[in-house]
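In response to the reviewer comment on reproducibility (Comment 2.3), we provide here a single inverse folding case reported in full, input and output, so that an independent group could reproduce the run without further information from us. The structure tokens appear first.
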């Protein structure tokens, strides 16, 4: 099994990562992850900047809601790329 290395602030790419093998298929990212690759996979699928998506997710905790529960469900149900 390939060893995964987490994304750090010094290795974050600002351009979206496009993978032709997973284009349009929702998946957890193996390359762009900080916790489980859920937000990195969403960013890869839709061509979004993963850092902006992560910041939006963190800011969403200022609004009451089930954000953490949804993240854990996505972690469980989304296939790894």
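Designed residues, in position order:
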């Amino acid at each position: 099994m390939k060893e995964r290395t987490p994304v750090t602030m010094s290795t974050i790419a600002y351009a979206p990562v496009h993978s032709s093998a997973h284009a349009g298929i929702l998946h957890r990212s193996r390359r762009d992850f900080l916790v489980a690759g859920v937000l990195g996979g969403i960013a890869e699928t839709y061509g979004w900047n993963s850092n902006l998506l992560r910041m939006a997710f963190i800011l969403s905790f200022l609004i009451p809601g089930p954000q953490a529960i949804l993240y854990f469900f996505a972690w469980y149900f989304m296939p790894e790329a």
